[in-house]
Every structure is written in C-alpha cells, then in structure tokens.
Amino acid sequence: MDRRTSTQRRSAVIFITCVVIISLVAVTIGTIPVDGFLWNVDKIDSVSVGQNENQTIRGIKVYSEDDPVKINVGSLVNAGAEFDERYISYDLENGQTANDSEVYIKNPNTTDATVVVRSSALDNTSTFDVEIKNINTTRVSSYNQDLANLNNEFKYTTTQAGESDQTSFTIQKSGSVDFTSQPYNNESNKLYFKNVSFVNSSENEVVVWKRAPDGELEKRIATAQKNQSSISLSNGTINGKEEIAITVQPEWIDTPEIIYAADHTTVTAPTSTKLLEDPIYYPRNSQRNQQYSGSVYFEFNTDIKESQGHIDISYVNGPTSRISIENQSDEVIVSDNELYLFPDSLDSSENKKYIQHVTIDGVRSVYGGEDLSEEQYNPKRVRDYILESTATTAARGAVMVISSNKSENISLYSDSRSVNLSRSGDRNYNKILRTSIISTSQSRLVRTSAC
C-alpha cells in the first residue's frame, strides 16, 4: 500500500467519524424544547371529607418561566366540592414563592374551575408544589341512591403551553358502618350494626332506610348516633321480607343525596295479615278461562301460607259453603299474596247462586304474625272485562277489568288527567279498575308496548 492510498483511507475514516459525531449532536440538541412546556407532576395528595380541607399538588416540573401553569380541578367540583375564591387559599411551596394574586382560582365551583399560576410567579424552572386550602368536600358522596360506589378516583389536568399531565388522587373514606351477622331481632324489634365511625365530623348520623324493589333508598325509618350499636324500630315498620340499608351521612340533609358509608341486608319480620281491597267477583262466563269465570279474587298485604285457613261463602239464594285453603284443590289457587277462589266448582246445578258476602278465617302470612280471622267482606262484581279498545258505559263505583300482559303498558286518561293504574293489577298483569277513582265523563284507554 502506498502512502497516498493510506492517507486517503485515513481521511475517509475521519470524515465518517465526524459525520456520526455531528449526527449525534444534532439528535441531542433536538430533545431540548425551543418553547417552554410542562414536563410532569409527581403526585396529588388525597383529601378527606370536611369543610376546610387542604391539598397539595406536588412536584410540578416545567421548562419555561414565561408561560402560566393551569390546573383544572373541575372533576372534584363536579362531585360536589366547593373551592374558596380568596387568594389566601392558593400558594406555591418547595421551590417557588408567589405574591398575592399570582396564584388564584378561575371559574370556581364550576366544572371549568382552574387554579392558575401566573408566569410572574415562576422565578426559575425548579420543581415546585401548589398548595390549595379551604376545600369544602362535605357534599361529595361515596355512594348513589342504589348504594353503588361513587367517586373512587379523581383526576386533575395540569397544563402549560399546550402540554398537559393528568394525575389521579382519591378522597379518604369519612365513615363506616356494617350490619351484624344477625341484624334483626323479632322479639325486641331492634336492628343491630357495628364498625360505626365518623372519621372527620361529629355532624354525621346513622340512618336506616327501606329499599325499593329497584334498589333505591325509598323511605327513612330510623336514625342513630355514633355511640349506638342498635336501633329500636316502631311496631309495623318492617313487615314480612324487607330490603333495608344503613348509611352514614350528614345530619343536615334528610335525603340520601350524600352518603359517606353504607351497608344493606334482608330482614324478615312477622306481619298481621290484611286484605288490601274488597274481593273481586268474576261472574260465570264460558268465553273466559277459569280464573275469570265464576271466581273470587283476593289480594293480601303479604304472601300467605298455602296450608292454613278457610273461607266461608254466604249466598243470597243458597246455603253457606266452606272452602279450605289447606288443601290445594280445584277450588283454590294461592300465588304469593293472591288467592283465587272457585265456588262454582262445588255446584253442579244450573241454578245461578248470588254471593252475599265472604268470611275469611285463619289466613296467615308466610312470615308469621297475626292471622286474618272472622273478617267479613262484600265482593265487588266485575261489570266489564275489556279485551280490546271499545266503547262501554259503567255506573260510578262499578268494577271493570282491563285485559293486559307483561309486554304491555296500560294508561288511562280522564278529563286529560292520567289515572294511576300501577298497583291495581293481578298476577296476570290485568288491570282492575274501580270507576270511583275517575270522573263522570269519557275516559281514554291507551295501550303501549313495554319493550
């Protein structure tokens, strides 16, 4: 190899090396921002439930002193918290200091609530904290009215020069309460609970609720203080099988709008058996099925036993007959809180007999309690059984039955007002209409699909 060739190769190596070095320098320079932007936020402190809570947003790192830092706190406002509007509730710590009005809140107590750090407060690009004081979180609920968990996690969005960082935090539980393994005593009519605590406030109380079939808290039935472990209920508060709930919530609100802690259970209590309405008598009609031809319909306030009691039927033009509920025969159908009686099945004659009254004796709830004994009722005779849209006339006070099914909604309008038919139905979804509840004028029946 001659000297010229060696020199050329050496020059080529040096040139290539220089290109690589220059490229690396260019890459390194490319990662340094020309304009300032937010780098990151280390963490946000959790808060408790209280009227004057403090919270620190820690480790805010920026690369510019020239752009304001904005922290959107609307997620906490949306859950019910209230932020103080005064400048004294906002400050910088650990790396930066601020004068009055250099840290403030904009659009307080709206979902756009934003804590602003003016660029004039940023003396350098050192990491710093933002301290927020006097947050009222007493209206932040941990549960909704179905007792589903709410507000488990919140996020603040911190922004500078268009770059943002989302950071999460939680609200610490402010109370606890649980039912015991045996929550109800029939004899003492007491409810028992445990683990009662009010973490931050003496202005809380324990509330007992009845739950509706859809799970919502329906009726407030008792209250207790922190040092109690049981509640005495009034007689008749719980009847039969009931879903109940217990909550810790502020004593200054009567509704279940704000709940800090909750538990629920099912209890069973004895109930006195009663008939909700006078019995309904369906005259014999060969075009209808058995339940609506020559039958008497009873609706009770509780599910009744299928093996106890009897019903005596007194006729205007015939002797009294007795049908026992103990034997599930062709004469009786019991379904939960409903009973169908078929007195015509006892009589093979063609002579029509007219029921004068019925006497119920010894009928008892499946949950125990006082029997319905020696109670006499006058059945209401069905005037019309409406299968489809039709014009019909009925005397005021008469009973009519509107045929329906599970997949259908029935609405009745009288004088442009809606008539409530929600409760007046049997187990086959037919609506029992007592015309005494509507005005003496034309009414309009509307059928719609329940799907």
Per-chain topology:
Blueprint lengths: L2 H28 L7 E7 L8 E10 L6 E4 L1 H5 L11 E4 L9 E4 L7 E4 L10 E8 L18 E7 L2 E7 L5 E11 L4 E9 L5 E8 L5 E8 L5 E3 L7 E11 L10 E9 L10 E3 L12 E5 L10 E6 L2 E7 L7 E4 L2 E4 L13 E7 L13 E3 L2 E7 L12 E4 L5 E7 L2 E3 L11 E4 L8 E7 L2
Parallel strand pairs: 17-25, 25-26
Antiparallel strand pairs: 1-2, 2-7, 3-6, 3-8, 4-7, 5-6, 8-9, 10-11, 11-14, 12-13, 12-15, 15-16, 17-18, 18-22, 19-20, 19-23, 21-22, 23-24, 26-29, 27-28, 27-30
Question: What do these coordinates show?
Answer:
The protein has 451 residues and is mainly β. It has 5 domains: 1-32; 38-169, Sandwich (Immunoglobulin-like); 176-269, Immunoglobulins (Immunoglobulin-like, Sandwich); 280-378; 382-449. The protein has helices at 3-30, 74-78, and strands at residues 38-44, 53-62, 69-72, 90-93, 103-106, 114-117, 128-135, 154-160, 163-169, 175-185, 190-198, 204-211, 217-224, 230-232, 240-250, 261-269, 280-282, 295-299, 310-315, 318-324, 332-335, 338-341, 355-361, 375-377, 380-386, 399-402, 408-414, 417-419, 431-434, 443-449. The strands form 7 sheets. A 7-stranded mixed beta sheet has the order 21-22-18-17-25-26-29, with no helix packed on it. The termini are far apart. Mean pLDDT is 81; it is low at 1-36.
